[in-house]
Write a structure and sequence with these properties.
326 residues
Length: 326
């Protein structure tokens, strides 16, 4: 899966279009052919490949085709399986679209920060290598300066290319809730709280979807647990489902899961005087979503700050090495 396929804005649009097409009466697998003509060009090949895959093995379950497809990420496949179980694919696609839309602001900030940092890294290493080459060739004259400049340009291009690939990998890891990056960030209290807040928001929405599909609470809890992509959070939801099956009330099982204890969910900002007469008031899912977005923004700024400190440390080290007196 290439970088363009992993961009939050592109995937949000993909799921929005998929949900709308199914809502308008399109069916699997023809919907993927129709979608390939409307979606971003990066998705055309995977969409057509998925269509051919389903047509060549129509007896295989759709969920298995989704798992084997290069189009859907593992966490997206889990969500789509919930949609297949409840026959509410458009609503589930809306969940995925909403997730990527919430990530868009932080992804753009991270992308800009990485662009600046990679430029600094490239310039620093290029200046250091160019200076070293010039000094080894005599330090003065046209040949040493030209050799140093060419070496600096080559190093700049190599480091920039490596940095671009690394940045693309980091951005794609940022967009997947079950990625290694989020596993590392969950070591931090803020990272773990943000991860659980994201999960709770989707869990509550999925639970409501299952109840609307006339499933009992035990089956609903089990289906929603399987839709969670992070293993240890999924196990907590499975424990809730087991507690419900043994007759324990949902509220008690939910509190005993410990998920609320590891996330920071605060009240929404107070309304202004002009909003006091509004007919709509936020529900629990709105409060959890706001907490997730607030912590997500804090976390991405912390990540960029940490990378900036590392960049400044490397630049300072290179400056020391460039100093003849050192």
């Amino acid at each position: 899966m290439n970088y363009r396929e992993r961009l939050s804005s592109h995937r949000a649009m993909l799921f929005a279009q998929l949900g709308q097409a199914i809502k308008e009466g399109q069916h699997f697998p023809d919907v993927f052919v129709e979608l390939s003509q409307q979606s971003h060009p990066a998705f055309r090949a995977p969409l057509l490949q998925l269509n051919e895959q389903i047509c060549s093995a129509p007896k295989e379950p759709l969920a298995q085709h989704f798992d084997e497809s290069a189009l859907f990420l593992p966490w997206e496949g889990r969500l789509l399986k919930l949609g297949l179980a409840t026959l509410r694919i458009p609503e589930v696609c809306g969940r995925a679209c909403d997730y990527y839309a919430a990530l868009e602001r932080s992804s753009r900030f991270l992308s800009f920060g990485l662009f600046v940092l990679i430029s600094l890294w490239s310039l620093s290493f290029a200046a250091w290598v160019g200076s070293e080459v010039s000094m080894r060739l005599g330090g003065e004259g046209l040949v040493p300066l030209a050799s140093g400049a060419l070496s600096a340009l080559g190093v700049f291009l190599v480091v920039a290319s490596m940095g671009r690939r690394w940045a693309g990998c980091l951005l794609t890891q940022w967009s997947s809730p079950d990625s290694r990056l989020w596993q590392g960030l969950s070591v931090l209290r803020l990272g773990k709280s943000c991860l659980v807040a994201r999960s709770l928001h989707q869990y509550l929405l999925n639970l409501g979807l299952c109840v609307q599909s006339n499933f009992d609470i035990v089956r609903s809890a089990r289906l929603c647990a399987k839709a969670e992509s992070v293993p240890w959070v999924r196990q907590a939801y499975l424990d809730i489902a087991s507690a419900l099956q043994s007759g324990q009330p949902f509220s008690q099982a939910f509190v005993q899961s410990g998920l609320l204890a590891v996330t920071n969910i605060g009240p929404l900002p107070a309304r202004t005087e002009g909003e006091s007469g509004a007919l709509w008031s936020p529900g629990i899912t709105d409060v959890v979503k706001a907490a997730y977005q607030r912590q997500l923004w804090l976390l991405v700024r912390l990540l960029v700050a940490a990378l900036s400190i590392l960049t400044l440390a490397v630049a300072a080290l290179l400056l020391i090495l460039l100093d003849p007196a050192a």
